[in-house]
Amino acid sequence: MDEEVYNAALRNALGGIKNALPDLNWSFILTNDGTVIASNESSVDPNMAKAASSFQSLAQKAGIIGGLDNMLINGEKSKVYVSSVNDMYLVAGLAKKADLVYFRTIIGAVLPTVLQVLDGVTSSLSSTPTPFKPKSII
What we know:
Helix content is about 45%, strand content about 25%. The chain has three helices and five strands, in the order αββαβββα. The protein has helices at about 5-20, 45-60, 100-125; strands spanning about 25-30, 35-40, 70-75, 80-85, 90-95. The protein is globular. The termini are far apart. The model is unreliable at about 130-135 (pLDDT under 50).
C-alpha cells in the first residue's frame, strides 16, 4: 500500500480521536526507530522531532526490561501519554484534567482497528485477484 495513503489514514484517525477528546492537545504516531509517521498537525514540528528522538532512546533502553507499553508524564500544566500500539507508539499531549480512562478506551479501540483494516487492505492488495467470471445465461 502506498505509504502516503497509510499515513493519511492514521492522520485521519488521530483527527477523529482529537474530535472525540477535547482534552487532547496534540498527538503523533512514531515507529520503533523514532520516525514520525502521522500527526494531527499539518507538519512535523521540530520539537516533535526532538521528542521522538529522545523517546526512541528511552524505548531502546526500556527494551532491556521487556519494552515500553505505556508511560504517563504528569507536568505542571499538562500530561504526556505514550502508548504502544502494535509496533508503533502513540504520543499524546493532554490537558491536566483529561480523563485517562476515557482516553485509553478511545485509543484502545480506534487505533488497533484502523491498523488492522490497513493491514487487511495491504494484504488483499498484494494477493493476486481472481478474475470476474460472468454466469452463463444458457
